[in-house]
Structure of PQQ-dependent sugar dehydrogenase:
Amino acid sequence: MTRPAKRAPLLLAMGLLPILATTACNAAGPDTAAAAQDTPAATSADQRPFTATEVSRFDQPWAMTFLPDGSLLVTEKRGKLQHLDLTSGQKHEITGVPKVAYGGQGGFGDVILHPDFARNNVVYVSYAEEGTLDTRGAAVARATLALNADGSGALKDLKVIWRQTPKVSGQGHYGHRLAFGPDGKLWISSSERQKFDPAQDMSGNLGKIIRLNDDGSVPADNPFASQGGVAAQVWSLGHRNVLGIAFDANGKLWAQEMGPAGGDELNLIQRGANYGYPIVSNGDHYDGRPIPDHDTRPEFAAPKVTWNPVISPAGLMFYSGSLFPQWKGSAFIGGLSSTSLVRVAFDGENAREAERFNMGERIREVEQGPDGALWLLEDGSKARLLKLTPKA
Ligand SMILES: [Ca+2]
Ligand SMILES: [Ca+2]
């Protein structure tokens, strides 16, 4: 699935950045210079501080998470959950997974561990689910992972604890990224299913960031708890397609958002805040209709980073390891249309793109391994699992 660029980047026009040519198809617009000012030049393979080693391949992988024993769980969009033993290289398909609505952007989504996984073996998975009358919506299930000595296993006692509401037509913008916060709560990104206005409608949970207890119940201290109903689940609203959420070392939640044309974002998520979509965006609709920029409506929370040309962010993690000490505290974003790994650096609550590594393939997911290596999953069929270690 390609994603058209809003405008050709300034750096491309200057001939400095041929690597991004695949994302650009239009002539440079009048306000390109300002929008592109913070975009660093992509780093070529021989300048990278890391070596990328292929470890395995998957069919349309979407997410991964490391288990305490160093093995890896990987979801595949068509509906498989794979368990990869990184020592033996053996891969086993985990049984007992929910049936997914595969198609478009939909299918199996995220997989994460309960904070007490080492004791309770509880995992959470997200996926697109069929409704009635050709509708779909994301769902989140909680289950116990029962692993056998040979690496095979099953999800037991699977229980759906959350659903997008309403279920709607189409196969895009599920979001359904998951994270546990330092508060012990389960956080879910619920994208707006390409329906725009639901992001501002508190009678549904589309276009929102959701905060739940680990059993799926609603915390009494959520910002809209007094409204009851679905609104009680909501932590923040006005989001488009949030394909990465992660907590930094200070416990602050960040979310990257695949925006409209020329409007990808990294947001610092604040309690009860409205991020403005589709009323404001620094990008514009793909059909050419303008959307007023953030600075016209300061009552809406503005992004900390905006990308134009877009990077198509998917997968977000904060680096805390020692293998790349220069990157401690940085965030890493997988780029789909930009076929890149993007490093974001922080100064308090401010953020900027610091580095961009061209990976030559769409990057769907980023993780930090137990030894501090960076791990990437490419997108699509025969996608590589890559381990990034410091160049010798
Ligand atoms: Ca992950
Ligand atoms: Ca705009």
